[in-house]
Every structure is written in structure tokens, then in C-alpha cells.
Amino acid sequence: NYSYLGMNEFLNPVTNAMDPINAPRHKMGMKLQYNSRRYPITGSLNARYVDGFKWSSGIYFGDIKPYTLFDIHLGYKVNDYLKANLSVTNLLNHMHTEIVGGPSIGRVMLLRLQTTFWYFQIRLHSLAIHLLRGFIFSYKLIFSLRIGFENKINK
Description:
155 residues, six-stranded antiparallel beta sheet, single chain, alpha+beta, two-stranded antiparallel sheet
């Protein structure tokens, strides 16, 4: 994908000066994805390019340098109830900033285990509906009692 922003600054009506819009003129991204038909594995390689741009927000102002990042995502389905995913963002550990005043960002690794319990989810959903019905009934009862009590006081 590619995006192009036709302007990179605007006229600030308060200061009557041109301020940056804090966004790059050019951004690009691509993704190569693999889903095995035979084995329970998935993988993808993502690449992102962000053009340099001017940044201004409060006391923070300056230039954001252009950067290119690569990410990798691997997935493994252990069984019908358990999946494991490993994501490595900024695979090459390119230190960069995305906002002036913010930290330099390097590689980030995330291991996620995802589980599904259909019976447990259905039971929780059913319990939530029962609790919600009980709450609505209690609210209506309290509201009715309060109106009745206030009517007796006002008479």
C-alpha cells in the first residue's frame, strides 16, 4: 500500500503562522504472507517506509527522520483450543523516533498464547445475560419504590 499527503503544513488561525500537520508526505507498506495448507503454521514479513517530516506539538518541535522497518509474524496452531504467535516488530533493530519528544524505538518481541474455551464462553455469556436481567429488574424495582415513596411524601 502507498499513501501520499498533498500538504505538509497548514495556516494556524490563532498564530497566523504555518504549522506542520505532523504527518509524512509518503508512506509505503508491503506484506508477504504464508499460510500452510498441510501444517498448522502461518508466517508473514511486513515492510514499512515512512518519509521524514516536520513535527510540532506544544513545546516539542523538530524533524522526524525517514525510516524503514521490517516485522515478522509466526503462528502455530497447537490444537483446536491453543494457538501460539511470535511477533518481532522492527526486526533489524533500527532505532528511530516517531514523535519529537518521544523515545527512540527499537526491536519489540511479543509471544502470545491464545486459547479458546467455547463452553466457558457460552456459560459466561449466559451468566452476563442473567446478571444484566437481574440488574435491570432491580433497577426497575428500586425506581418504582422511589417514585411511590416520593409520591406519598409530596401528598
